[in-house]
Design goal:
17% helix, 267 residues, 6-stranded mixed β-sheet, 14 strands, alpha+beta, globular
Length: 267
């Protein structure tokens, strides 16, 4: 059935729309070791630096360098899910890599998007929940958690995949702060997950591994991998970790100012 959220009663970011409530001490998203038949999924996160890499007055797509990098990463084993930030046309990125036959895009608000392998998965539902907002001194707008639930055709396994581009300034958690941003991400997961779902959260969090934002997520989820760009602001979290993390890779930047990263995890 639907996942139940339990709060501790403590809040952060009071007086703001993005105020967050702390999850209860004993509430967790970590999977049990005996979660039935585990399914390996391959997942990417990639901030595409859109205005510069794809902007007409700048590099105009750079010969499809980002899409080609993704295609090379899909060689050997295809991706199940991809999360893109600063992505204004996911279809173009897939076409640049010759991937538009095998993958379908889903477009979110705030220039985030997803792609999934349509031969393997069906979409059960998707949406976008705002979780944070940039501070006035570096304001681009609100920040969300894009989410989609998928069912694996072959096994029936369900996965909740989330993609986040975090608030600015980097490392601050934005207007409502680091605690609230993390707690709102966790509450978004609870709002859309079923108990049996595998859960993967990816993105450019605009927060490195030392921040309270990441530490709070680590209390409730497995932190699987962090990139190197901007001090390490790109992350993967999941309900499963430890020996269930099969591989992790940095594929290089493909012309962006962030590296494309991927993992294989058993959910």
């Amino acid at each position: 059935g639907p996942m139940q959220w339990r709060g501790s009663g403590r809040t952060s970011g009071d007086g703001q729309w993005c105020r967050g409530g702390e999850p209860a001490q004993d509430w967790s998203l970590r999977c049990s070791a005996d979660g039935g038949q585990a399914l390996q999924v391959k997942v990417m996160t990639y901030n595409l630096f859109w205005w510069n890499l794809f902007g007409h007055q700048f590099r105009g797509g750079n010969g499809g360098s980002a899409g080609k990098l993704i295609a090379s990463g899909a060689g050997g084993a295809p991706y199940d899910f991809m999360g893109f930030q600063e992505c204004e046309d996911v279809g173009r990125v897939l076409r640049d890599g010759g991937l538009d036959g095998a993958y379908a895009g889903i477009v979110g608000d705030h220039a985030v998007a997803m792609a999934y392998r349509k031969g393997a998965w069906e979409v059960l539902g998707h949406g976008m929940d705002d979780v944070a907002e940039d501070r006035p001194d570096q304001w681009y707008g609100k920040r969300g958690a894009m989410w989609a639930r998928f069912r694996h055709h072959e096994t029936g396994k369900t996965v909740l995949f989330l993609n986040h581009h975090g608030p600015l300034p980097v490392g601050t958690g934005g207007k409502c702060g680091r605690h609230a941003t993390a707690w709102n991400l966790l509450k978004t997961i609870a709002a859309h997950a079923e108990d049996s779902d595998g859960i993967v959260l990816v993105g450019d969090f605009n927060a490195d591994a030392g921040t309270t934002t990441v530490k709070e997520l680590e209390r409730k989820m497995h932190h699987l991998y962090t990139g190197k760009s901007f001090g390490g602001v790109d992350h993967f979290f999941s309900n499963c970790g430890g020996s269930r993390l099969i591989s992790k890779r940095n594929l290089g930047d493909g012309g962006s100012d962030h590296d494309a990263l991927d993992i294989v995890v058993e959910l």
